[in-house]
Amino acid sequence: MKPKTRLSSFPINCYSLSLIALGLLLSFRMSASGNDGGRPPTFCNPLDLPYRFQPKPPVRREAADPTMVVYKNEYWLFPSKSGGYWHSPDCLHWTYVPSTSLPIETYAPTVEIVNGRMLWTAGHQGIWTNDDPTKDAWIKVANIEIPDDPDLFLTKDGRLFLYGGCSDKNPTTGVELDVRTLQPIGKPVDCVVSDMATRGWEALKGKGKRPYIEGSWMTEHDGTFYLQYAAPGTEVDDYGDGVFTSKEPLGPFTYAPYSPFSFKPTGFIRGAGHSSMFQDLSGNYWHISSMIIGIRHAFERRLGLFPAGFTPDGQLYCNTYLGDYPQYPPGTKMDPQHPTPGWMLLSYRKTAEASSTLDEHPVECAFDENIHQWWSAKTGDKGEWLKVDLGKPCQIEAIQTNFMDQDAQAFGMLKREAYQYFIEVSGDGATWASCIDKSQNQVDSPHDYVQLPAPVTARYVRLTNVHCPAGAKLSVSGFRIFGNGLGTPPALVEGVKALRSATDPRQATVSWSPVKDADFYVVRYGIAPDKLFSNYQIYQATEMTLDALNVGVSYAVTVDAVNDSGVTQGTQTVPIP
Predict the structure, then answer these.
(1) What's the pTM value of the predicted model, to 2 decimals?
(2) Is the pLDDT confidence value at 343 over 90?
(3) Nearest Cα to 61, choosing from 357, 401, 272, 303?
């Protein structure tokens, strides 16, 4: 993978914003290269859905274990613990369908399209069908035993299979189903077995426990069957997906040495496991995954969406490179290895102030690129504010505000209540102009991502509260400003070294020389110099341990430098024998 930064001066607006008039202030300028020209909008992980507050304490939002399918030219999303499901024409604007006809509270549902109808199942719940899922009118059509974390899969030649399993002891299994009666044909066969002794990514680091092997998903591509599975556990940052391959739907299967192929152990929000894979309306592959917060409850989770694909020789990959930065959505004709407009993070570790602060949640936590920590005001009153100084005039393209629901008291979906706020920008910190106006917002958007109608050049950005839902205090885990720092990308990283551990070959130490103007680094690695698909984002360090390697597999590694003005890709690729 060769990620690159592509700067763009004009994105498409996909939200109701308050436009800034030209010449409104002398202290900043707004530049645009004309009209939108048909350019696509962008989105930013975690996906901004109205994540449900769970029905029982502790108070927290959750959605995970997602299945995404295309049905009747729409995208259908079925996550765990959401009280229903969503559909969308573009993966940007979602319609929620609450369900009472399904056993919807069962973890890890799966969906497949068979003979023009949608089939749904979840662990131990039989199989249900609906030919118009816009309506909650599901009917149970097969009362068969369903494993935990199931996956229904229809081959290209019309055969139906059921995979599943969620255990730290037992393997993932597969069985064929009669496509007419939906009854099993034969007995389940073992498909995926864990081996944490040789697969570093499967090990629960420091836990002293066996990994959970779960979240199966099958994809058929060019005559090969790719049985994907998740490990080591949904509650950890390095939750990812590996894959076994076979020429037959029930094996025998061979472990893919490049596993995990879906992996995001670092960055603002982490985790890329228990996923589903689908082709969008333009034919591009995508991977939608569980991501972890895990503060108020081990299963406090969100969803992330990443481009995916296959190399010419059949290697499956998922592109999580800067995977919580703005990127183009499904349906866009783009290169899945370069899916972004190249907007950089402008607000990382920048100087900030707030109207008030809880001692245990300081203002720096809104700018440290760690969703596990957050700033909170002392109240949720109108007028509480958060302000950041970007340190210089920057070109701002989009803003993501990640609310953390401090002291919220809510159970279930929010109804007719949402975060209401407005954002202003300034060139001198004294005179302000409106940039985003959500003061009348009625849509629950806990990870509110707004792409500006045209880029704005400013130094200061201020969020002011109007209303917090559910009695919450104003609290933000990431006030993330994206665009371009109008400076120079960092220098090239040099002095890259890699040494495999002599005592644990699942690990290797990678080090490099510091780059003065880098905000952070991205260590990219893979099984060949042209297949560096996995990565770690490394902050305030020039050495790290790769602990997700497979024993007996050789790797290559390089290091990129990143700042608010761009990415400089590493050119020194070193082997890890």
Answers:
(1) 0.92
(2) yes
(3) 303
